[in-house]
Structure formats: structure tokens, C-alpha cells
Specification:
The chain is built from 14 helices and 2 strands; from the N terminus they run H-H-H-H-H-H-H-E-E-H-H-H-H-H-H-H. It is an all-alpha fold. It has a two-stranded antiparallel ribbon. Helix 1 crosses helix 12 (about 245-260). About 50% of the residues are buried.
Length: about 300
């Protein structure tokens, strides 16, 4: 049951790209889609947040840091990722997002002076080589649009910041409360940013946007954290990371079958290399930790922070 819960959570994350593409296909805008996701996730978390607010003590410094991690990491990832989907196929945007594998190692090196192990560095080379094959210079319907490519990489940077940021947050607070704090903070800032140039009526999360906002909010910010929280402690950290990495192939298969995006043999080879690089990073954790111990930050983040 623990493994099934983690696989379901990863699958939910994987199908978000086709959902966003579906919302774009109905004429909804990037600001409306992004805001609606956080709006409905906030509606879900708000009762619990208000109920626990007076019972949970939050140091000011930790509260501020948690807020910025939510805004820059959680909110920034959605902003850049959904923006990239305006220009690129869902499969390409997802591949660019998974560059967090090496960007996170680079940020650890730059800001915390942590040296990557030889196996980690080798896995980075494999991911980069796989990306070279998986991201085509052109595709049917147009070439790789540079803004979309840069937005996809920006999403990976934001996601890396989210992972590293949550690793430096004390975990004495309940996972639900931390998730609520970050989601509500992200929604507030994103809403204020959009209101500077988007009329209020265009951010309307109701009407035709309701179904898309509910799907994105629940599948992106609510259900996966619950499932990871249930499954991860039961199966151990390394297995959680391995099963959680299924987000990549699930997302690509969803783009292939649901959006009818063409993925050629060379791209599949590149995707296989990327997936192999991810598995190598987890193999080292399995060897060093024998598959047990503390849950790695990436999947602990999903499981407890959304």
C-alpha cells in the first residue's frame, strides 16, 4: 500500500502538464490557470490552517523563510512551468523541469560548498547527455522557442530552490500546516503580481475555469502530499525517491497518449538516459543508506510540503 500511494502521487504530478494544456486549449490564460490552482488549493487548506493557527508556534525567522520558499520555490515553479507550456510541447517542458537533478547539485556547490560525489557528477553528465537527445531543435508545428526553453529551465531553478529551501526548514511543524503556509503565501503574492497588469475579471477562477482549477489544485498541491505522507514512511527513503521519479515517464506517456505529442526514437533514448541519471543518484543513497533512513529531501518535500 505504501508503494502504491507513492506511485499514485507521482502519477498525479505527471498528468498535470496535459491538464494545463487542456485549459489553454479552452482559451484560458496563463494568469488565470496559475492563480486558479493556488486559489482552490488554498480553499482546501484554509479551514485547517485557521484551526491550527493559534496552536502552532512559528518563530518569526522560520515563518519568513517558509513564506519565501513557498513564493519563490513553489509559486515560481508553477509560474515558469505553466508559462513554458504556452510555447513548448508538454513533454519538452517536463524534461526541462527535470534538470533540477543537476541544478540542485550546482546550487549546493555554490551556496553551501557541498562537493558532489563522483557518482553524482557522472549522473549529471548522463542527464545532460540525455537532455541533448530528448530536446529536439525543432518539432512539428514550429521550432523550440527560446523563451519557452528559458522558462522551462527557470522552473527547474525554482524547483531546486524549493527543495534546498525546505531542507533548511525545521520539521517540527505539521506537514499540513507548512504546506498551507506556503500555498497561501504563494497565492497571495501571485495574485498581487497578476493584478498589476491583469484585470480582476480575467483572474476569475470560477465558471469554465472551475474544473481546471480544481484538478490542478488537488492533483498538484493536495493529493500528492497526502499520499507521500502516507506511503514514504512505510517504504523508506530510497524506494520513495525511485518510485517518485516515475513522474517523468508518466508525464511523457500522458503527453504522448492524451495530447498526441510525437516522441521519436532519439528522444526516447534521451529520456531513458535522463531517467538512468536520476536512478544513479538514488542508487548512491541506497548503497550509503542501505535503502533506509531519513527520506531524501525531494520526496520528503513532496510528502510534507506539497
Amino acid at each position: 500500500m505504501g508503494s502504491l500511494a507513492v506511485l499514485l502521487a507521482a502519477s498525479f504530478y505527471g498528468v498535470m502538464s496535459p491538464i494545463v494544456k487542456g485549459a489553454y486549449g479552452e482559451g484560458h490564460t496563463f494568469p488565470q490557470i496559475t492563480f486558479s490552482q493556488f486559489f482552490y488549493a488554498t480553499l482546501f487548506y484554509l479551514p485547517f490552517f485557521l484551526w491550527r493557527m493559534g496552536k502552532v508556534k512559528i518563530p518569526i525567522r522560520e515563518g519568513v523563510w517558509l513564506f519565501f520558499v513557498g513564493v519563490i520555490g513553489l509559486g515560481g515553479t508553477s509560474l515558469f512551468y505553466y508559462a513554458s507550456l504556452q510555447y513548448l510541447p508538454a513533454s519538452i517542458s517536463l524534461i526541462l523541469l527535470f534538470q533540477f537533478v543537476w541544478i540542485g547539485l550546482l546550487m549546493d556547490r555554490l551556496f553551501f560548498k557541498k562537493k558532489g560525489s563522483p557518482l553524482q557528477l557522472f549522473s549529471v553528465l548522463i542527464v545532460l547527455l540525455g537532455t541533448f537527445f530528448a530536446v529536439p531543435l525543432s518539432y512539428e508545428g514550429g521550432g523550440i522557442y527560446l523563451p519557452g526553453f528559458l522558462l522551462g529551465l527557470a522552473a527547474a531553478v525554482s524547483y531546486s530552490f524549493f527543495l534546498i529551501g525546505t531542507s533548511h526548514i525545521s520539521h517540527h511543524m505539521e506537514g499540513w500546516f507548512r504546506s498551507a503556509w506556503m500555498v497561501i503565501g504563494a497565492m497571495t503574492v501571485i495574485g498581487l503580481i497578476f493584478l498589476t497588469y491583469v484585470p480582476l475579471q480575467e483572474l476569475n477562477p470560477f465558471g469554465g475555469m472551475t474544473k481546471w482549477g480544481l484538478l490542478l489544485g488537488l492533483l498538484g498541491q493536495v493529493f500528492p502530499p497526502l499520499l507521500f505522507s502516507y506511503g514514504a514512511p512505510k517504504i523508506g527513503g530510497s524506494l520513495t525517491s525511485l518510485l517518485g521519479s516515475m513522474e517523468l515517464p508518466v508525464g511523457l506517456l500522458a503527453a504522448f497518449f492524451l495530447l498526441k505529442e510525437e516522441i521519436n526514437l532519439v528522444q526516447w533514448m534521451g529520456i531513458l538516459l535522463i531517467f538512468s541519471g536520476i536512478l544513479l543518484t538514488q542508487l548512491e543513497q541506497f548503497i550509503n543508506g542501505k535503502g533506509q533512513g531519513r527520506i531524501p529531501y525531494r520526496r520528503k518535500t513532496h510528502g510534507e510540503n506539497g
